[in-house]
Amino acid sequence: MPHRALTERRPWLLASFAAAIAYFFVMDSPYGEIWLILLKGAGVAFLAVYALLRHPSSTAKLLALVLALSAMGDMLIELSLQWGGAAFFFSHVAAISLYLANPRASSTPSQKGLAVALLFLTPLICWLLTRDISIASYGLALGGMAATAWMSRFTRYRVGLGAVLFVISDWLIFYGIGERPYAETASMLVWPIYYAAQFLIATGVIQTLRHELRDVA
Questions:
Q1: Of 68, 129, 151, 183, which residue is least crowded by CB atoms under 10 Å?
Q2: From the CB of residue 62, how many other CB atoms can be counted at a distance below 10 Å?
Q3: CA dihedral 145, 146, 147, 149 (to 10 degrees)
Q4: In its keyword annotation, does this UniProt entry include Hydrolase (predicted)?
């Protein structure tokens, strides 16, 4: 089984990582736009395939849906911020349902406080960065995703951290919309932070599920 997993399933992680790195280095190149869009979507799309193949549960299938919607958002946002934002909004809604269905048994007051902060500060900062009510509304879904991820039973060192990085990557996008100092640097940081977030979330959820599978076996 370990050999089969290595040769048939984990290469999807390698393919995802390779696509993400390739996109980072060519995203400002003069290559055909359609190929760049497909390459950008491939990074997280391969993570969705990894989730489907790595665990047979409905939880893994829901994770794959979350990732697939995000991959769609990655591509659509190159055509329209509104279309991409809509795909990510539905991705966050699916993620919230995933995390709410997998609550943590207990949490400390400080951990609960951080979840509340993520829920309310995320849309507030989105609003302060853009003064756009639609982006602030999106920020509420984004904050809900991060808060429920933090309070879920999945490892905080991967899934919780990944959710927080996701929030940061979106804040950087919104920061770069206006004429602000270091906006170009902020834009350059969006992709690596965002991809790291998705990678941590995907591998963190699957890691928890597979540990449980071994415990049952």
A1: 183
A2: 19
A3: 80
A4: no
Give the contacts of 165 (CB within 8 A, at least 6 positions apart): 193, 194, 196, 197, 200
CA-based end-to-end distance of the chain? 13
DSSP line for 6-53: HHHTTHHHHHHHHHHHHHHHHTTSSS-HHHHHHHHHHHHHHHHHHHHH
Break the chain into its structural domains and give their ranges.
2-216
Segment 144-175, tens digit of pLDDT: 999 999 999 999 999 999 999 999 999 999 99
Neighbouring residues of 64: CB distance < 8 A, sequence distance ≥ 6 = 48, 49, 51, 52
CA distances from 126 to 114, 130, 136, 200 (A): 17, 6, 5, 23
Q: Who contacts 115 (Cβ-Cβ below 8 Å, separation ≥6)?
A: 107, 147, 148, 150, 151
Q: What is the pLDDT of residues 185-204, one digit of tens each?
A: 999 999 999 999 999 999 99
Residue 147 and residue 116 in contact, taking contact as beta carbons nearer than 8 Å: yes
